[in-house]
Design goal:
- The complex is a heterodimer.
- Chain A has a single domain, classed as Aldolase class I (TIM Barrel, Alpha-Beta Barrel), CATH 3.20.20.70.
- Chain A is about 35% helix and about 20% strand.
- Chain A has an eight-stranded parallel β-barrel, surrounded by seven helices. Chain A has a four-stranded antiparallel β-sheet with strand order 5-6-14-11, with no helix packed on it. Chain A has a two-stranded antiparallel sheet with strand order 1-2.
- In chain A, helix 5 packs parallel to helix 6.
- The model of chain A has no long low-confidence stretch (mean pLDDT about 95).
- In chain B, about 20% of the residues lie in helices and about 30% in strands.
- Chain B has six helices and 16 strands.
- Chain B starts with 10 loop residues before the first strand and ends with a strand.
- The relative contact order of chain B is 0.13.
- The mean pLDDT of chain B is about 95.
- Classes of the chains: A alpha/beta, B alpha/beta.
- The interface between A and B is large, with 48 and 40 residues.
Chain lengths: ~325, ~280
C-alpha cells in the first residue's frame, strides 16, 4: 500500500506525525523522530514569550491512559527561531509549527512570527485542557472564539495552510469545525487531549498531578477520537484534510482513523509503549493490512467509513 | 526499550529511616524495592512541591535508599520530612553501569555522586571486581560515604578535597590521572579496566578526556532536567543526537558521550532554554 501523499502542496512520505507536546522541544528531537521514520513532526506549542509550565508531576500513565498537565512550557519565539532554523538546514521531513496564545490578537502575532521560520503547516492549539486556571475555558469550546482565532491567524498566514486543533470536550465538534471552516481554516487536527481527568493517590488522598487535573490521552480516548474525526469529516464533507490524533498504537488503529476521515495520523503516547520504533511499526502494519485487503493507496481509505455507510443504506 | 507500566504512576511509601550524612545531605530508606541497578534513577514525588529524578543509592530487593543534597525547592522541602511521612516513588528508569567479573574498576565520585558509586561498589564486589574509589568534594565536610567505602573488601579508597582539608589536595580526577602515570598503566598491565564517574558535569568532562586520552573504557552518569522519565516529554533530549537521557542515559558510554555536543557546555531548563555549565 502506497503511504506517501501530497496534501495542500506538502509531500509526506508516510502519514505518521509526531504529535505536538511529545518530544518536540528541539531540532535534535525532530531529527531523531525523522530518523525513526516519522512522516512529519509537530513542534511543541510555541508562545510569543516565555511561558512557564506546571510543577511536576506533569505526566502519569497506566496501560489505558496518560494524564498530562505539562502546562505548555516554552521559551518563546527566539528559541523557536534557533531550533526551527537549525532543523530547516536539512529538513528531513515536513515541520508543523504549533502555536498557542492567550488572546485572539496574540494568536495572530505568534502566527506572524512563527511563519518567518517557514513551517509547512501552522497548527493552532486552541484546545489545551490543562491551563484553564490561568486562561479560562479554551477557545475551542466556543463557536465564536474558535472562529475568531481562525480568522485572525488566516489574515496573516498567507500561503501556509492553517490547521485548527480541536477539543473533544464540546457539545458539537462538528459545529466548531464548521465555524472554523467558514473563517478560512485549511484543515483540522482532531483531537487534543480529553477531559480533563484526575488521578488520586490513596494514602495521601491527594491528586497526583501538581495541576490536579490533566488532559487524557492514550488508548482510552481512541474511540472518542474516531467519533470526533468522523463528525468533523462529515460536517466539512471531506473537503478539509484532518490530522487524526488520539490513542493510536498500531497500524490498524491508524487505518481506523483513515476510514473515519483522517489523512495524517498523530502519534504521541504510543512512544512510551512501543518505543521510538513506533512510527516504522505503524507504517509496516498499515502496509501489511493494505496488502492483505487489496488496498493499493492510503488515499482509497480516507473517509471510507462514510462511503460504507452510504453503500449499506443504498443496499437496504 | 519498553518501560514497565508500573513505573509511570507514582505510589507513595512512608519513609522508614532518615540518616544525616552532612549538614545538607540526607539518606532516606524505604521498605520498598524497585529492582534498580546501580546508575538507574527513580522519580521522587514530594506532594504539593515537585517530582524530581534521583539516583538510587541502594536497592537490595527489600529496601531502597536515596541520598540527596538539599539544594533546590524540592529537596529542601524533603529535608523537612520525618520518618513515616509519605513520598511518591516510581521507577527504575534508564541505563546502568555494567562491568565484567574480576575487572579492576576506578569509581570517580564527586559530591553526592558518592551514593550511586557506593551502590556500584557493593554490587561489583559480588562479581569479584577490584575497586579504586576516588571520592572528592570541595572540602572535608562535604565528603560522603567514606566510612562505607573504607569497610568494603577489595577496595582502595582515595580521598581528595579541593582545599586540602582532607586527603589529597586537588580534584579526584587529577589523582586518578597521577596514579595512572605512577602505576604505569598500559593495556598489558592495566591499573584499571574501566572508569565509572558520577558527579558534577565539569568533573565528568575531565574524566571523559582522561579516559579517551588513556584509551580506557568509561561510563559517565549525566544529569538533565526531566519530567516524565519514560520518554515522552522530550526535556532530557540532548543535542545533537536527539537521544533521551531517561531512556538512553543517565549512564552513557564515553564514546557516545563524546558525540553529545552539549556535554560540559550547556543544559536545558523546564522551558527548553539553554544554560551554560
Amino acid at each position: 500500500m502506497k503511504l506517501s501523499q501530497t496534501l495542500l502542496g506538502v509531500r509526506f512520505d508516510n502519514p505518521t506525525v509526531l504529535a505536538s507536546g511529545i518530544w518536540g522541544i528541539t531540532a535534535a528531537s525532530w531529527r531523531r523522530a525523522a530518523k525513526c521514520g516519522v512522516g512529519a513532526v509537530t513542534t511543541k506549542s510555541l508562545w510569543l514569550q516565555e511561558h512557564k509550565g506546571h510543577a511536576n508531576p506533569t505526566i502519569i500513565s497506566t496501560d489505558h491512559w496518560t494524564l498530562n498537565a505539562v502546562g505548555v512550557p516554552d521559551a518563546g519565539v527566539e528559541k523557536a527561531r534557533e531550533e526551527i532554523g537549525n532543523f530547516n538546514k536539512d529538513k528531513p521531513v515536513p515541520l508543523i509549527g504549533n502555536i498557542i496564545a492567550s488572546s485572539v490578537e496574540d494568536y495572530a502575532k505568534t502566527a506572524e512570527r512563527i511563519l518567518e521560520f517557514k513551517p509547512d503547516f501552522l497548527e493552532v492549539n486552541i484546545s489545551c485542557p490543562n491551563i484553564e486556571d490561568e486562561f479560562g475555558r479554551p477557545f475551542a469550546c466556543s463557536i465564536g472564539d474558535s472562529a475568531a482565532v481562525t480568522k485572525a491567524v488566516k489574515a496573516v498566514s498567507g500561503k501556509t495552510p492553517v490547521f485548527i486543533k480541536l477539543s473533544p470536550n464540546v457539545d458539537s465538534i462538528a459545529a466548531i469545525a464548521l465555524s472554523c471552516a467558514a473563517a478560512g481554516a485549511d484543515g483540522f487536527t482532531v483531537i487534543n487531549t480529553a477531559g480533563p481527568g484526575m488521578a488520586i493517590d490513596l494514602p495521601t488522598r491527594l491528586p497526583i498531578l501538581a495541576n490536579k487535573v490533566g488532559g487524557i490521552s492514550g488508548p482510552a480516548i481512541k474511540p472518542l477520537a474516531v467519533r470526533c474525526i468522523a463528525d468533523v469529516y462529515k460536517a466539512t464533507e471531506g473537503k478539509l484534510p484532518i490530522i487524526g490524533t488520539g490513542g493510536v498504537m498500531t497500524g490498524e488503529d491508524a487505518i481506523e482513523f483513515l476510514l473515519a476521515g483522517a489523512s495524517l495520523i498523530g502519534i504521541g503516547t504510543a512512544l512510551a509503549d512501543r518505543g521510538e520504533t513506533v512510527f516504522r511499526l505503524v507504517c509496516d502494519e498499515m502496509k501489511a493490512w493494505g496488502k492483505k485487503n487489496g488496498v493499493k493507496d492510503l488515499k482509497e481509505l480516507v473517509g471510507g467509513m462514510h462511503t460504507a455507510i452510504l453503500n449499506v443504506r443504498k443496499r437496504g | 526499550m519498553h518501560i514497565p507500566l508500573d513505573s509511570r504512576l507514582p505510589k507513595t511509601f512512608p519513609i522508614a529511616k532518615i540518616r544525616r550524612e552532612t549538614e545538607m545531605v540526607r539518606t532516606l530508606t524505604f521498605k520498598a524495592s524497585f529492582g534498580a541497578k546501580p546508575g538507574q534513577f527513580v522519580m521522587v514525588w514530594i506532594p504539593g512541591v515537585d517530582e524530581i529524578p534521583m539516583s538510587v543509592a541502594f536497592d537490595d530487593g527489600k529496601t531502597l535508599q536515596l541520598t540527596y543534597f538539599a539544594v533546590g525547592d524540592a529537596t529542601r522541602a524533603l529535608a523537612e520530612y520525618k520518618v513515616g511521612d509519605l513520598v511518591g516513588l516510581r521507577g527504575p528508569f534508564g541505563t546502568f553501569y555494567s562491568w565484567k567479573s574480576k575487572q579492576k574498576l576506578a569509581l570517580v565520585a564527586g559530591g553526592y555522586g558518592a551514593a550511586p558509586m557506593y551502590f556500584v561498589a557493593k554490587q561489583a564486589i559480588k562479581d569479584r571486581c577490584t575497586l579504586e574509589v576516588f571520592v572528592g568534594a570541595r572540602s572535608a565536610e562535604h565528603l560522603l560515604y567514606l566510612k562505607e567505602f573504607s569497610m568494603l573488601p577489595k577496595t582502595t579508597l582515595h580521598v581528595t578535597t579541593d582545599d586540602g582539608s582532607k586527603g589529597w589536595k586537588g580534584f579526584n580526577v587529577g589523582l586518578l590521572e597521577k596514579l595512572l602515570t605512577d602505576r604505569k598503566h598500559s593495556k598489558k598491565h592495566p591499573f584499571v579496566h574501566q572508569i565509572f564517574a558520577c558527579g558534577p558535569e565539569r568533573m565528568l568532562v575531565s574524566v571523559s578526556r582522561l579516559a579517551l586520552a588513556k584509551n580506557i573504557p568509561s561510563q559517565l552518569s549525566l544529569e538533565r532536567y526531566m519530567k516524565c522519565g519514560y520518554g515522552l516529554c522530550g526535556n532530557c533530549v540532548v543535542d545533537p543526537l536527539g537521544i533521551r537521557l531517561c531512556i538512553d542515559g543517565p549512564v552513557v558510554d564515553n564514546k557516545l558521550c563524546s558525540q553529545i555536543a552539549e556535554f560540559g557546555e550547556y543544559h536545558r531548563d523546564a522551558v527548553g532554554k539553554k544554560h551554560a555549565f
